[in-house]
Amino acid sequence: MIECKLSTLMGAQLKKISDVSRATGISRTTLIELYYDRSKAVSFRVVELLCRYLNCTVGDLFVIEED
After folding, report:
1. Are the C-beta atoms of 67 and 9 separated by less than 8 Å?
2. pLDDT tens per residue, range 30-54
3. Dihedral of CA 43/35/14/22: which sign?
4. pTM score over 0.85
5. Which three-class secondary structure string do you get for the chain?
């Protein structure tokens, strides 16, 4: 299972969903789904924007959790 660490990354940088949405153009709905790790799919463009904005790698944003 792939887990999204957006909430952890945002918390470490004291970012709010509204801040990220305004700065990246990603919809609040998309960010909320990722933030609460409920998203079923995500576009490469969204991943790129988040990684650039949060100054992280894809591996920081998503991790594979072993069951």
Report:
1. no
2. 999 999 999 999 999 999 999 999 9
3. positive
4. yes
5. CEEECHHHHHHHCCCCHHHHHHHHCCCHHHHHHHHCCCCCCCCHHHHHHHHHHHCCCHHHHEEECCC
